[in-house]
Amino acid sequence: MMEQPASVPDRIIHATLQLINEHGLGGITMTSVAKGAGIARQTLYNHYADVDTIVASAISRHNTEAIELLEGALAVIDSATAKIEQLVRHVASVSGHHNQLLASPTLSRDARETLSDYDSALDGILREILESGRESGEFRANLMPTMDAVIVRHLLEGVSDLVAAERDAAAAIVAASTTTIMAAVQQT
């Protein structure tokens, strides 16, 4: 069993993310979160008014940490090509959670906006990689980072969908997707 984070808010977020992972949004109740966090329900209510607020906060934390991890990984990579490969792996690794949440009809508007913030951050990172690759000559000179980012982003959404549906084929999906994206952006 994993050691629980020390602070009550961290324990609440950890429990919520664990419940989402194990049971989807349908498994989230104030009672289940309190139990998972090892706190009394009243303590939970002292921090959050309802399940939607907890879920939005948990998604926000997860997304912030995911983007920070991605940015950290990208910071030590010099080539735009390798950065694209890392980005594809990142999208594949978070696809299950992201797709599961988006598919939920019970996801609150605030939680959907939080997911949208993650997508916006990912879009910005992608545009930066494409611009860097164009400037370094790794990618084609006529690449238009803003427009091509939209196209590549749709390919990444396909990666996410495929990996979520076929977890056992994730490595093959990542490899094929990286090849396809590179064919779209590299010099011909």
Structural class by sheet pairing and helices: mainly alpha
Q: Which quaternary structure do these chains form?
A: single chain
Stated plainly, the CATH topology of the largest domain is called Tetracycline Repressor, domain 2
CATH architecture descriptor of the largest domain: Orthogonal Bundle
How many domain units?
2
Distance between the termini: 51 Å
Explain this structure.
- The chain has 8 helices and no strands.
- The protein is mainly alpha-helical.
- The protein folds into 2 domains: 1-48, Homeodomain-like (Arc Repressor Mutant, subunit A, Orthogonal Bundle); 66-185, Tetracycline Repressor, domain 2 (Orthogonal Bundle), CATH 1.10.357.10.
- The radius of gyration is 19 Å and the shape is elongated.
- The protein starts with 7 loop residues before the first helix and ends with a helix.
- The mean pLDDT is 88.
Ordered list of secondary-structure elements with their pairings:
Elements: H1 8-23, H2 30-37, H3 41-47, H4 51-75, H5 80-103, H6 109-136, H7 145-165, H8 170-185
Helix pairs in contact: 1-2, 1-4, 2-3, 4-5, 4-6, 5-6, 5-7, 5-8, 6-7, 7-8
Give the key terms.
single chain; 188 residues; Arc Repressor Mutant, subunit A; Tetracycline Repressor, domain 2; 2 domains
Nutshell version of this structure?
77% of the residues lie in helices and 0% in strands. The chain is built from eight helices and no strands.
